[in-house]
Amino acid sequence: MDTCPFCSIIDGSAPATWVEREEHAVAFAPLADSALAPGHTLVVPVEHTADLLSADPTSLAACTALARRVARAMRGALDATGTVLLQASGTDAGQSVPHLHFHVVPCWSDDGTTHWPEPPSAHVFDGDPHAALAEMFE
């Protein structure tokens, strides 16, 4: 997909600040004005896939494994005392780039922020949502 900004980074036609490059997943810095914390890193599958639901198992496994290694590196290199893994699939979830990606965000006790959604969703579901989910697995 030649219009995807992450595909352009992966193929070298757009610049990036690289953290790691592997066969099925890569890690790089987000644009400076969108960084949530020092060291905030994006982990992206090499193969273009729009979101979590369309990702093939190899790409998904490679991304989660690389995200874990990035989080460990944040603790070692940046003295982060925690990390947050964020992923949005679909525009209604806040996904702005239509290429699966994970934000790995380092956290410290003095950073004064939280990366948990506030307030909770106002959407009303008629019935038991967890029972409806469980039925999908039967």
Largest sheet: 5 strands, antiparallel
Instruction: Quickly count the helices.
Output: 3
What is the residue-mean pLDDT, rounded to a whole number? Answer: 94
Specify the CATH architecture: 2-Layer Sandwich
- Assigned CATH class: Alpha Beta
Structural class: alpha+beta
Could you tell me the CATH topology label. Answer: HIT family, subunit A
Helix fraction? 10-25%
What order do the strands of the largest sheet run in, or round the barrel if closed? 1-2-3-5-4
Q: Work out the number of β strands.
A: 5
The helix-strand sequence is HEEEHEEH
The dominant shape is globular
Radius of gyration: 17 Å
Number of domains: 1
Structure overview:
It is a single chain. The chain is α+β, with helices and mostly antiparallel strands. The protein has a single domain, classed as 2-Layer Sandwich (HIT family, subunit A), CATH 3.30.428.10. It has 3 helices and 5 strands. It has a 5-stranded antiparallel β-sheet with strand order 1-2-3-5-4, with helices on one face. The radius of gyration is 17 Å and the shape is globular. The model has no long low-confidence stretch (mean pLDDT 94).
Summary, kept brief:
With 138 residues, the protein is an alpha+beta fold.
SSE layout and pairing:
Layout: H1 5-10, E1 18-21, E2 25-28, E3 41-45, H2 57-77, E4 82-86, E5 102-107, H3 129-135
Antiparallel strand pairs: 1-2, 2-3, 3-5, 4-5
